[in-house]
Amino acid sequence: MAGLVRVCLVVECRSGLVLGCVSVAYEEGECVLCLVKRVFGCGEGDLAQEDKVWREFLWGAIAGAFGEGMMHPIDTIKTRIQSQAILRASQSQKSILQMVRTVWVVDGLRGFYRGIIPGVTGSLATGATYFGVIESTKNWIEESHPTLGSHWAHFIAGAIGDTLGSFVYVPCEVIKQRMQVQGTKSSWSSSVVKDNIRMKPSAQLSGYYEELFQDGCSIYKAHGLKGLYAGYCSTLARDVPFAGLMVMFYEALKELTDYGKQKWNLTHHVNGSIEGLVLGGLAGGFSAYLTTPLDVIKTRMQVQGSTVRYESWLDAVQKIWKTEGVEGMFRGSIPRIIWYIPASALTFMAVEFLRGHFNKELDTDMVQEITTLSIEKKGSIRDVA
């Protein structure tokens, strides 16, 4: 029998006992744990929205750094391949395998991991804002613009999140890519073109990047904020569509998967981490290929140095198209896809793992702190826990 009763919750906290009273509808025989969760305003496995958003920021940061760290060597190869037209001038350009062999011979294993610290730092910021903003804005966008559709709501939310992260990500990306293309000090001073001028072994070495903070200060002193944010507009032109497309593809693939399960009556439970791994990889691969031309332009503008070859984003598009054609616009697409499929897969897998494990544990810990719950009905109080 349902009725309005007064529920008294005594919560054990580190600071002492806190007494909370609230009136709720209680049905005789209702599960105590279900009642407690209802009183706290959360369902099974769910959290209050504000708490959930902050956790998405944290899980996104961890997942973003994890994905970047795991796939950094492939990103190094992609960056070097896309930068050859600037660094090697008229010399013949190397294939993927030739570039891998060159990096290994010149710099060893360390060469594949040059720039990993600024790379991980930028991914921490981008991952946090990406997943945090998606969680906090997608529902608002759908409610305020009901005719927009859920896919476009996810696209916009992802684009906004990535844009906010770009204020930290772009300077880190500039430093990371300059570290990636330079190799060792000896190779940089003897055989690599610096600012489009081939240096002799005896030439004074400058502009060699080794540490995140030191390199940031060096670029700022030489070029100001413009140097740290080199190619910022082209970065946004690449990352905003990519971020929007990736979350849109991911959510669309999840809906397609759920539809398939219902249509063919598949009752087998698929682990959320595995689902995130597969669907995240597919979403990242599709998005990466479609935005490769934007990535080529961004990379060329960021590594060109003080000798300006491309005056603007549009100028880069025209010159690359005129001299290299479609092949130039999609140069590095294979290593880019090879990088983004596992990187996106690992990122979404990590996020789904953190959501599935720690959200439930933290929610359960909150409920388990309740030591006494008394139900008062018709003037009597009965202890139920």
UniProtKB/TrEMBL annotation:
Nucleotide-binding among keywords: no
Annotated localization: Membrane
Primary localisation category: membrane
Repeat positions for Solcar: 51-140, 149-256, 271-357
Record-linked Pfam families: Mito_carr
Superkingdom, natural source: Eukaryota
Biological process annotations from GO: transmembrane transport
A cellular component term, taken from the record's GO annotations: membrane
Keyword set, alphabetical order: Membrane, Repeat, Signal, Transmembrane, Transmembrane helix, Transport
Membrane topology: Multi-pass membrane protein
SUPFAM superfamilies: Mitochondrial carrier (SSF103506)
Cleavable signal peptide: 1-20
Protein family membership: Belongs to the mitochondrial carrier (TC 2.A.29) family.
Listed name of the protein: Mito_carr domain-containing protein
Natural source organism: Cephalotus follicularis (Albany pitcher plant)
